[in-house]
Amino acid sequence: MRKPPRLYFSFRSPRSWLAVRQLTERWPDAPDLVTFVPHWVPDDTMRTALAEADASFLDTPVSRAKHTYLLVGAERLAQRFGYRMVWPTEVDVDWSIPHMAWLYAREHQRGWQFYQAMVSARWERGENISDPAVVAAAAIEAGVDPAGANAAASDPATRAQAVAALAGAYQDDIFAVPYFVVGRHRFWGLERIDGFLDAALAAGVRG
Fold first, then answer.
1. Res 47: pLDDT
2. Is the bond preceding residue 98 a cis peptide, omega within 30 degrees?
3. Which of 56, 75, 196, 207 could join 180 via S-S bond, C-beta 3.0 to 4.6 A?
């Protein structure tokens, strides 16, 4: 059986946020028909678990110049789309926390609601989304247990799901986000949404 379309996202990436928002504005059913997969830089413990699963992590660090260019470009795009965007001031973010909290929310059928709450906190209010208070607030907004969301990063079952998500990214050759996959067709970047939508239509996923 063919896998459903997949969208690899990261709470860290403003272009991922912009891409998901553009996608769902153009295809409102996407959250129900597309498999969202979180993607972030794993810590050493998770890298060891990935190695044991015959997987790795393909993202490579970008130069400071390129990073600055991408951030400024995302701000220009947000203005063009008419979105409110607030740059987070906190740089010391533990990215495993929001992504594994999202896995917890997904397990409780509230993944999309939690995603929306977290990107609003990160990109519309500039909050540190690894802060337990911010995670708890997003969980309450999404309708999941805030204590469970905050405990997800240390929960063995959720960590196993995280390893599976990152191993799946390795198997799909994911090297950056946002990244869209439909069958054998792959699309990297915000600018490839048209191609992804066309491929999804051709595959009979959307009408």
1. 93
2. no
3. 196
